[in-house]
């Protein structure tokens, strides 16, 4: 029986950053898919469930914060498995949003080991709870 690699979705409009995260997380043993827009991320999640999401705040047509809310509304099992990536974590409006929603923050510029560490921690925690990959309608795949 072949084990499926944990799936990580990276959402950032900076192509170079997406490539760096893809390479780093793939080397850490994850299956990584990356997209540059909120719409592409949402559409992708419909057909390809993710175990964790790295989400930039500043996206071209929709903020990452709005996308976060849309994702956890449709796939509640992903709540706690989405990290917000930003260089603006200290901005007043971002601080207020983060306090209300409790999403983890990965501050840019970041250390790739910190990103891999967050992913590993989240997946370990979810395995301990017996929760697998987030599926359509909020359920989980075992």
Write the layout of secondary structure elements.
Blueprint: E1 7-11, H1 15-27, E2 31-35, H2 38-47, E3 52-56, H3 64-74, E4 82-86, H4 92-101, E5 105-107, H5 112-128, E6 133-134, E7 140-141
Parallel strand pairs: 1-2, 1-3, 3-4, 4-5
Antiparallel strand pairs: 6-7
Please provide the ordered H/E string of secondary-structure elements.
EHEHEHEHEHEE
CATH superfamily, called what?
Response regulator
What's the CATH architecture?
Answer: 3-Layer(aba) Sandwich
| Strands side by side in the biggest sheet | 2-1-3-4-5
The DSSP helix count reads: 5
Strand content: 15-25%
| Rg over C-alpha atoms, rounded to the nearest angstrom | 14 Å
> Which percent range fits the helix content?
40-55%
Question: What's the CATH class, please?
Answer: Alpha Beta
Number of strand elements? 7
Please identify the structural class as seen in this structure.
alpha/beta
Task: Give the overall pLDDT as a whole number.
Answer: 89
Q: Ends: how far apart?
A: 14 Å
Q: How would you characterize the overall build of this protein?
A:
There is one protein chain. The chain is an alpha/beta fold and 142 residues long. The protein has one domain: Response regulator (Rossmann fold, 3-Layer(aba) Sandwich). The protein contains five helices and seven strands; from the N terminus they run βαβαβαβαβαββ. The strands form two sheets. It has a five-stranded parallel sheet with strand order 2-1-3-4-5, sandwiched between helices. Strands 6-7 form a two-stranded antiparallel sheet. A hairpin with a 5-residue loop joins β6 and β7. The chain is globular, with a radius of gyration of 14 Å. The two termini are 14 Å apart.
């Amino acid at each position: 029986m072949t084990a499926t690699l944990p799936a990580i979705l990276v959402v950032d409009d900076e192509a170079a950053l997406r490539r760096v995260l893809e390479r780093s997380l793939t080397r850490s043993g994850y299956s990584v898919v990356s997209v540059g827009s909120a719409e592409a991320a949402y559409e992708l999640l419909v057909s390809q469930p993710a175990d964790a999401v790295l989400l930039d705040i500043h996206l071209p047509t929709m903020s990452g914060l709005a996308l976060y809310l849309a994702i956890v509304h449709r796939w509640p099992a992903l709540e706690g498995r989405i990290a917000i990536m930003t260089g603006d974590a200290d901005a007043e409006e971002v601080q207020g949003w983060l306090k209300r929603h409790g999403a983890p923050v990965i501050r840019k510029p970041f250390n790739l080991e910190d990103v891999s560490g967050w992913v590993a921690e989240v997946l370990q925690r979810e395995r301990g709870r017996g929760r697998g990959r987030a599926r359509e309608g909020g359920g989980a795949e075992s």
